Amino acid sequence: MKRLAFGIDLGTTNSCIAVQLPGRESSTVIPVLGSKIIPSCVKYNTDGTTTVGHTAYLQRHKDDVVYSAKRFMGTNKIFEVKLEDGTTKSVTPVDVATEVLKHIVTHVPPTYGKVEDVVITVPAYFNSEQRKATAEAGKRAGLNVLRIINEPTAAALTYGVNHKNESNIIRSMIIDVGGGTTDITIMEFGYVPKVHSMLNGIIEKGYNFKTVSTGGDNFLGGDDFDKNIFELFKKEAIQCFPDLTPEHFEENEKVYIKELEVLKKNLLGQVAMGVSPDALAAQVVIYDENVDDRLKARYVTLTINDFVDAFYPFFGNIKECINECRRNPETDELSEMPDKCILVGGSTKNPFFNLLLKQMYNEEMGDDIDLIIPSNEFADESVAQGAALYASACLNPEESSIRIKEVNPIPVGVGYWDNTFQEERMAIIVNKDEILPVSHSKYYETLYDNQETINFPIYQGTSPSVRFNTLLGNLEIKDIEPAPAGKEVVGVNFFIDINGIISVEGIYKDKKYSLTLDSVLGVDAKSISPMDKLLLQRVEKALEYYNYIEDEAKISILQNYGVGDKLPDFVLADTKLINEYHISKIQSQLAEDLADIEESSSSDSSDETSLFTSGDSDV
To answer: Is residue 183's pLDDT more than 60?
Structure first.
């Protein structure tokens, strides 16, 4: 039997595995323990084993279950899991992803053989560190990761192969909104029966898929909609029952979110079936361990309008991601909306999502969009199916007719000290949306006489200021020969491979230097002091609330969590900056600020080390 390759959609909420069988043009989703969709939930047991999938999902409100870990891939996030015997276990996002992958591949029916060669999908907006962390999880699970492919590209693959008869190349927007991430990708794809020569290159015979631009938010998904509903419910509950305290909702947040999630699915399902929204309402029982009789329990009534109110700001953030994908980085103008739109991910099945998206198109184009709303199965399974198609193409390239061109999702550059702004800024070397693989070289002169070392901090992000971008690591070029300023020249080579993973190399004469990367697998929990842990928890909780409350309430809510005006002004100034600012970095930066305040330190955090002037030469 020919060796099979598999595609895995490693999702925030759910995961899925598919395979392309010999002789078939489309791919097939493989049921795991009887289910095609596997919740990405991991329960850690006292005997050292784990329980993954539906059983863990039903217990997700407990302290020994971790879910939605994908949001924190590539960061130093640590989940402190409280086991049933009272002990604590520290796990990283990569640990959680590894357990999910192990569970999936272990329980694939034996008729498919051993799962070894795989393509794993990631959000198009994942940075290099997040992609490395995903590949590392696959490696730990004993898999040979052939490629890391973007989720919208995988969905487009499935759609394109299933609609082979459509005329030539079509331009579409793929909107993928899952449980924890949002991806917007504009693509040109379709089946070409023969080779075409065009001004921008050759289009080969077969299935051609080209990414034009990407946008998204790695911290925006259905989980955030659920939190919006929770915040609205909490506000209503406190108005009805003034004796309820913030501590009550903090302690029972997981319980409430679980119940609200069920109510949300039921109500929206009824709307989708045509039930009048005016007739829809649900009762949320106030949790009280001292009340056993449900008839005596207190409750809050939420109407479908409450769910709509919670959804509007959520869709507003998605609209920003759509416009980001359309924005020309050189002119800052928005391109026209593509003629077709393909919806992927569980959150796009929300009927209000479809309604608001159509309104957005009508406002801009004055015409109805060709909104492709596939079946629920497509929304949930198409990413894994597309990954399987590409896995087969990677394993058998001589037999494949699939051609894919991906782009760099996030700019990459070096940090430098800007005297005008009096801060460290990022000089972009690799622009957003450059076709992968891509390489660039830059050359720099020494700044002062007898300079022996030049340090290049490497960043990935969209902001001119490095404080909102992700520090990938530092490239240090040493042992430069003594000479007058400007006499010695060093080179820096940037390369981004087809997986979107970055490598940087320094060159000085016959010597080569490698980038020292920050760890993407999480810090050792033992190295974090109890005070740091407490501060991180306070900051994280404050940020969760800060994203979903009205402007006039921001400061008061933050103060309730022991942070308040201790947050730096640049964070309080604009909610959008939080979304742009990598979560691990904002946690570490704010933790340092808070720690300084706790210790009554008067140190000046703006004391940066000068790197090199912005007037570098590009050869």
So the answer is: yes
pLDDT confidence of residue 368? 59
- DSSP assignment string, 47-102: TS-EEESHHHHHTTTSTTEE--GGGGTTS---EEEE-TTS-EEEE-HHHHHHHHHH
Interatomic CA distance for residues 120 and 238, integer angstroms? 44
Alpha carbon distance 247, 224 (integer Å):
21
DSSP code per residue over 5-49: -EEEEE-SSEEEEEE--TT-SS-EEPPBTTBS-EE--EEEPTTS-
Contacts of 244 (CB under 8 A, 6+ apart): 237, 238, 286
C-alpha dihedral (500, 381, 374, 127), degrees to nearest 10: -20
Locate all alpha helices (DSSP H) within 410-525, ordered by sequence: none
Q: Which of 86-90, 255-259, 481-485 has the lowest mean pLDDT?
A: 255-259
With beta carbons less than 8 A apart as the criterion, state whether 68 and 125 touch.
no
Residue with tokens 């005596």: 296
Of 160, 151, 219, whose CA–CA distance to 185 is shortest? 151
d(Cα 75, Cα 165) in Å, to the nearest integer? Answer: 43
Q: Is 161 helix (H, G, I), strand (E, B) or coil?
A: helix
Token pair belonging to 168: 């030539």
DSSP 153: H
Q: In this structure, are residues 154 and 383 in contact, taking their beta carbons and an 8 Å threshold?
A: yes
Q: Within a 13 Å sphere around the CA of 454, how many CA atoms are in the beta-carbon half?
A: 32
Which segment of 181-195, 228-242, 600-614 scores lowest on mean pLDDT?
A: 600-614
Q: Residue 363, class by beta-carbon neighbours within 10 Å (0-12 exposed, 13-18 middle, 19+ buried)?
A: exposed
Q: What is the DSSP string of 97-135?
A: HHHHHHHHHHTS-GGG----EEEEEE-TT--HHHHHHHH
C-alpha span between 581 and 571 (Å, rounded): 9
Q: What is the pLDDT of residues 249-306, one digit of tens each?
A: 988 888 898 888 888 888 877 877 777 666 677 788 888 766 666 556 788 998 888 8
Res 64 pLDDT > 90: yes
CB neighbours of 303 closer than 8 A, spacing ≥ 6?
A: 280, 281
Indicate if the alpha-carbon torsion angle 235, 237, 240, 243 is positive or negative.
Answer: negative
Q: For residues 473 and 471, what is the distance between their CA atoms, to the nearest angstrom?
A: 6
Question: Would you say 265 and 325 are in contact if contact means Cβ atoms under 8 Å apart?
Answer: no
CB neighbours of residue 274 within 10 Å: 7
